[in-house]
Design brief:
With 563 residues, the chain is mainly α. It folds into 3 domains: 2-139 and 196-424, Amino acid/polyamine transporter I, CATH 1.20.1740; 150-161 and 169-191, no CATH class; 445-562, no CATH class. It has helices spanning 2-5, 11-20, 30-41, 49-57, 61-85, 92-99, 102-137, 150-161, 170-181, 194-209, 211-237, 252-257, 260-265, 283-312, 323-330, 334-368, 387-403, 407-410, 415-434, 452-467, 469-477, 480-507, 511-525, 529-553, 555-562, and strands at 184-185, 188-189. The protein has a two-stranded antiparallel sheet. Helix 10 (194-209) runs antiparallel to helix 17. This is Amino acid permease. GO terms for molecular function: amino acid transmembrane transporter activity. It holds the Pfam family AA_permease_2. One of its GO terms (cellular component) is membrane.
């Protein structure tokens, strides 16, 4: 039983399986991959969440972007090695199949289904908000009942009509009025987010007709986006007041680190590049280069934007949803605010496009392996795209984007992404130990972690004992049941570090993948309990699907039967 659950695919098997299937168009070069990576990374974050991060941490948040990029490098290097070793679509799912076996690969693939779908729902709804704002700036007013979800409008209507002295914002009044103005079918008010659903349908159609067309659209949008960002940086530099950079870290380290989650997720788009491996001209050479180039370019952009924002206005004023437009309007440059509004729509569209390209290709790879219905690996004879999977991905994202509110999806993100990152970093250790690294065209630089992992653990413990008395006091004050509920993940982090220290000493593990594992595991401990509960429910559903369908129809199961 255990052997069948953790049976692995060799690199040769994976390459053979992909070559036996209908081929995808190999049209992507390094420039195209970098463009797709920038499209994914420089999305809504640079136009919205960067403001809140700057508000909490001050100008020093620019250093947080550098630190986070360095942290991402360890994971990106691991992805790059796997991409050069197993140059097929599937991302972390395929890599886990090689390193850890079928069950773990299924769990990762199932987690990625959730991550890609949910993130695109959020992006689509966010796009709608920016689009509506942009159209209003041009004097075009879309009826509110066509731009929001039903539950948000209903909640606002109920609050306005049952207010017992509580404050009602002007925006809530607008939403309540939208509920009243909406047409009805019987007693049901017809309210849905038309822009969010429509952009998903249009992007899905673009993904369906070809990677070449998607590449062209992505390249154009990225060029426009980078031009606007460069214009913002250069133009904003003339309005910087150096006194706004003092104090540089007004809220100390705690204020800077409060933006870790938002800043980290600004960078994770680099993994979406690996889903296009079979459409690369030379994936073993180009994918590693593209991943590193993306991180370097985007880090420079984020740092410069942060310094310009915090230099143009005081950081205390940046707790707004549109910080780039805000700082220019504060300096009397209202025309720039309009330009930024348009570019933000373009930026979010390009991010939506990249993730909508990635999801069907993961399904396609899982289907090839027999773990999902065969239809998902169907390649369109004319467009050479995973046609059925692309349509399903569009429906899965568009329908919720039409009818649900963003808050519903926020807690569904994060856990699976970190889990995938950890296993990819751990997989590199497996490649090194089994000698499979000899097949890698790109390798994570080897730094012997025999002593360094343990020394790092000892140093961390000493620092906590010396400087972390408030943290220790908090732990001591918690009853045992609450300690388990709220601190279990932190315990797992420290236990994992201890185990890795011992194993690294025995096996001479490479240091860099271990750093990647520990960084991602630590960030997992910072996620809320609701994230974990939803992820576990999703995981249980996935295990049912695997044992009822995937395990039986697995290609490896067929191979075993033939033997």
């Amino acid at each position: 039983m255990a052997n069948s659950l953790f049976r692995k695919k060799t690199v040769n098997q994976i390459l053979s399986d992909s070559s036996n299937e209908a081929s995808l168009n190999k049209v992507l070069g390094v420039r195209d991959l970098v463009s797709l990576g920038i499209a994914a990374i420089v999305g809504a974050g640079i136009f919205s969440t960067i403001g809140l991060a700057s508000y909490n941490g001050g100008p020093a948040v620019s250093l947080l972007f550098v630190a986070t990029a360095i942290a991402c490098v360890f994971t990106a290097l691991s992805y790059a090695q796997f991409a050069s070793t197993v140059p097929v679509s599937g991302s972390a799912y395929t890599y886990a199949y090689v390193a850890f076996g079928e069950l773990i690969a299924w769990i990762i693939g199932w987690a990625l289904i959730l991550e890609y779908a949910v993130s695109n729902m959020v992006v689509a709804i966010s796009w709608s908000q920016y689009f509506v704002s942009m159209m209003e700036g041009f004097g075009v007013h879309i009826p509110r009942w066509l731009t929001i979800d039903y539950s948000t409008a209903l909640e606002a209507f109920q609050k306005v009509n049952s207010a017992a002295g509580e404050h009602i914002s002007s925006f809530e009044k607008v939403l309540a009025q939208a509920y009243q103005d909406a047409p009805t079918i019987g007693s049901l008010h017809v309210i849905f987010n038309l822009p969010a659903g429509l952009i998903t349908v249009l992007v899905t159609a673009l993904c369906y007709i070809g990677i070449k067309e998607s590449r062209i659209a992505s390249n154009i949008m990225v060029m426009l986006k980078l031009a606007v960002i460069a214009f913002v940086i250069v133009g904003g530099a003339f309005y910087i007041k150096p006194e706004n950079w003092s104090p540089f870290a007004p809220n100390g380290v705690k204020g800077i680190l409060s933006g870790v989650a938002a800043v980290f997720f600004a960078f994770i788009g680099f993994d979406s590049i690996s889903t296009t491996a079979e459409e690369c001209k030379n994936p073993q050479r180009d994918l590693p280069k593209a991943m590193i180039y993306c991180l370097l370019i985007c880090t420079v952009l984020y740092v410069l934007i942060t310094l310009v924002l915090t230099g143009m206005v005081n950081y205390k004023e940046l707790n707004v949803s549109d910080p780039l437009a805000f700082v220019f309007s504060q300096n009397g440059l209202n025309y720039m605010a309009g330009v930024i509004s348009v570019s933000s729509v373009i930026a979010i569209t390009s991010a939506l496009l990249v993730f909508q390209i990635g999801q069907p290709r993961i399904w396609m790879t899982m289907s090839r392996d027999g773990l999902l219905w065969k239809k998902f690996s169907q390649i369109h004879p004319k467009y050479h795209t995973p046609s059925f999977a692309t349509i399903v991905a569009g429906i899965v994202v568009a329908v919720p984007a039409f009818f649900f509110k963003m808050d519903f999806f926020v807690d569904l993100t994060s856990v699976g992404t970190f889990f995938a990152f950890i296993l990819v970093c751990g997989g590199v250790l497996y490649l090194d130990q089994t000698g499979m690294s000899q097949y890698s065209k790109f390798k994570v630089p080897y730094v012997n972690g025999k002593y360094l992992v343990g020394i790092g653990l000892i140093a961390a413990v000493i620092c906590i004992c010396k400087f972390g008395q408030p943290i220790l006091a908090e732990w001591k004050a918690l009853p045992f049941d609450q300690l388990i509920e709220h601190k279990l993940l932190t315990m797992i982090f420290w236990i994992t570090w201890l185990v890795l220290s011992i194993v690294a000493f025995i096996k001479n593990f490479s240091l860099l993948p271990i750093i990647g594992i520990l960084i991602n595991l630590y960030l997992m401990t910072e996620l809320g309990v609701s994230n974990w509960k939803i992820f576990i429910i999703w995981l249980i559903i996935g295990l049912f699907v695997y044992f009822l369908y995937g395990k039986k129809h697995s290609r490896l199961n067929t191979v075993t039967d033939q033997k």
